[in-house]
Amino acid sequence: MGPPVFAFVIALTYLISGAAALWIRSPRLSRIIGFGGGAVASGMGLVAALVRLLQGEPLRIALPAPVPWVASELYVDGLSLFFLAVIFLVGFLSSVYAIGYMRKYDDEGRHREKTAPLLFNLLLLCMAAVVSAGDMLSFLLGWEGMSLTSYFLVVFEHERAESRRAGLIYLIATHIGTGGILLAFLLLVQSTGSFSFHAFAHVPLPDVGTQALAFGFALLGFGTKAGMFPFHIWLPHAHPAAPSPVSALMSGVMIKMGIYGIVRFLFYLLPAPPLAFGAVLAGLGLLSGIFGVLYAIAQHDLKRLLAFHSVENIGIILIGIGSASACEAAGFPGPSRLLLAGGLFHVLNHALFKCLLFMGAGAVLQATHTRNIERMGGLMRGMPLTGIAFLAGSLAISAVPPFNGFASEFAMYRGLWEGAAGGGTLAAILITAMAGLALIGGLAFICFVKVVGTVFLGTPRSAASSGARDPGHAMILPMAGAAFLCAALGVVPFLYRFRDSGNVTVFAALFVTIGILASVRAVSLRRNGKRVYETWGCGFSYATPRMQYTASSFADPILHVFRGVLRPRTKKEERLSGRFLLDLEYETHIGDLFENGLYLPLYRLFLRFAFFARRLHTGYIHLYLGYILGTIVLLLILFR
Amino acid sequence: MNTLTVLLLLLGIHVAVTDRIRPAIRSLALQGILLGFLPLADSAGSSWRAATLCLATVGVKGIAIPAILTRATSRLGIGQEFESLISTKANILTTGALALAAFLACSRFGLSGSDELGAAAGLTLIFSGLLMMTTRVKAVSQVIGFVVLENGIFLFGAASGSEFTLPIELGIFLDLFVAVFLMGILMFKIHRTFTHMDVRKIHTLKD
């Protein structure tokens, strides 16, 4: 069975299982067949992509042309295969998870849950098409398919106004993005005369101005999809609105399609991008990272918080890719390769741990029926498996060894350090990037201390939280698998590194030492036994769960430091009776600076223009015909 | 060939500037019949094709469509006046300006001789048809304008030498016939619902 046939079989498995789910009467069977088929197809795709990745040479499959005179083909090279592997891996995990999670829609009796597998599988298929496309037309077809299917998944709970609003914002953002990509592509077509991605590589673009323009449009387009600052505003709306497996898929891989586009554009399509391109990209990455994590710290909604962390991690990836391009342009291929590898490795890592975290958030959501972390607490007791998996994901995203987030960021630090040795402008850029990366890492750690501390530790803050239990196997197993992979991918690269330098014994000794220390500690803890007693109640007569340290109070010092850029609005109401405090209400709210400061004014401006333009729309047929006549006469006279 | 084109053009201008409906329909019918002879005069194509096209054109544009329009005007009691939004003088001037624009535009197409005249005449007919649809008030005059527009497209196509196969040409005729037929039915419906044929008042339907 050749690769084209195998690709066809995978695509068919997605489609047939998704379509079959529509027709099956039993909701349970529909779920199992639909998402199960998606998982099988993703599994096959993962194996195929990994096998192919080891073989190396690119694969071309000619397609029947969708439009005459434009040749269409699939072109799967190493970069495509890597992204394919990421898509299929996360696709597999979240499909299995969805079998368990989507059960909550079964009892509604509305049958809409039966559309979910089809949309889910189509989304996976479209993403696979995007990264395997060999020409711009197939790329855009896949891209639009991906945007539309994900839109329908975002508005899956369309009875909620919040979901519809999120869907609308997402739809507008994604179409502006597609517009940017289209313009970038057309600029390249104008210069090279070809729609194929691989003709570009051999025809140099004429001038830097065109390149810069095309790159700007590409950044707008791909950056919007990736959630890059300042085009990120759809992301914190769309991710919380979607069902959790969809959030996992969207945040895990769909936004990486933007990264794929940027890498394809910067490293394959542009002949020799100047240093400034990489610097701009790294700068935007830095802003995404810092603002993403700062806004994340300020959130109370678990999924919205995770969405802002996606912005942050996209920033980290962009720092890697941008500095790689800058190093390449400055003539340092070694650090460039290290940085690019670090950035791409972080794509895989972020896909894994963000998928894991969203799956964990989904389990928490299902158990507590709230997304507000101030109403959770003490979940580690009721749902230990979810808690441990979520903890692993949190450590990974905070770049703590031995998890995978550390491994990729370590590669980036190495690359930045080695590149900075060259001195000059490049060194200034790279050192800034390094400092930013360190700041982002520290803030992310703070944020996840807050999340894990408030959600899983302490005592339950609501009745639902105290009754929370671990979900079923279908949801636990993918989380466990992702957690295992997070740990494995954090260790394996260093094993390779130490094997190459002959220090594997040192590494093994390190692990054995850590193991011994840990077991000694465990034994000593057990010997001392447990003591159960009341926490000191600060002078209050009895302790209640409401006396716990809250997420807001934990975040407050950080927000205070950054109040200049975050501009928190706090509301404090006290009711006093004499000198005694009866009641105190405290509320902080942080609006997105760009959403309120840039996009809302733009939107209002657009609205005013639209109301003005509406005057042209009078309802008089004669006037409309007159418009047509005028346009035709003008066109015939002005152009030929 | 040139005579035919000039005649077509003159008839088109007559339709465009007259302010009575019956003569306009008669000119339209004559225009349709003359258009039918255009493929015969152009001897390049095969005789069978030319004959079929001639028959179809004369049948649809020379007889069927004028008949429908005449019947509609008399049955609906529409009256003789065209009722234009602009005065007859302004109408004549605008038609002249549009003819000038058409000839200017055609001079840049790189055609030559009778072709250029035919293309320019066709374009003039297209413009004047659109102008009729834009300025005239009654629904029946918009149908007349539409047919003039269609005739212009036919003339332009014949002059610019783009020959379609017979089935496609016949298909276009069928489309035109069905379009006019439907417009006729719609006029009856509009008349019954609103008790007038004034297209100006349709904007009250806007939300």
Molecular shape of chain A: globular
Could you give a short account of the major beta sheet of chain A?
2 strands, antiparallel
Indicate the low-confidence ranges of chain B by residue numbers: none
Summed up, the helix count of chain A is 25
Strand proportion of chain A: under 5%
Q: What structural class is derived from the secondary structure elements of chain B?
A: mainly alpha
Mean pLDDT of chain A: 85
Rg of chain A, alpha carbons: 26 Å
Total number of strands of chain B: 0
Low-confidence runs of chain A (pLDDT<50, min 5 residues)? none
How would the global form of chain B be characterised? globular
Beta content of chain B comes to under 5%
Give a brief outline of the structure.
The complex is a heterodimer of chains A (640) and B (207). Chain A is 73% helix and 5% strand.
Layout of secondary structure:
The complex is a heterodimer of chains A (640) and B (207).
Chain A: H1 3-23, H2 27-55, E1 59-63, E2 72-76, H3 78-101, H4 115-132, H5 136-154, H6 161-192, H7 197-200, H8 208-226, H9 235-241, H10 244-254, H11 256-269, H12 275-298, H13 302-330, H14 333-368, H15 379-382, H16 384-397, H17 404-420, H18 424-455, H19 463-466, H20 473-500, H21 504-528, H22 551-561, H23 563-566, E3 569-577, E4 580-589, H24 593-613, H25 621-638
Helix pairs in contact in A: 1-2, 1-4, 2-3, 2-4, 3-4, 3-10, 3-14, 3-20, 4-5, 5-6, 5-10, 6-8, 6-9, 8-11, 9-10, 9-13, 10-14, 11-13, 12-13, 12-18, 13-14, 13-17, 13-18, 14-16, 14-17, 14-20, 16-18, 16-20, 17-18, 17-20, 20-21
Chain B: H1 2-17, H2 21-41, H3 47-76, H4 88-106, H5 114-135, H6 139-159, H7 166-194
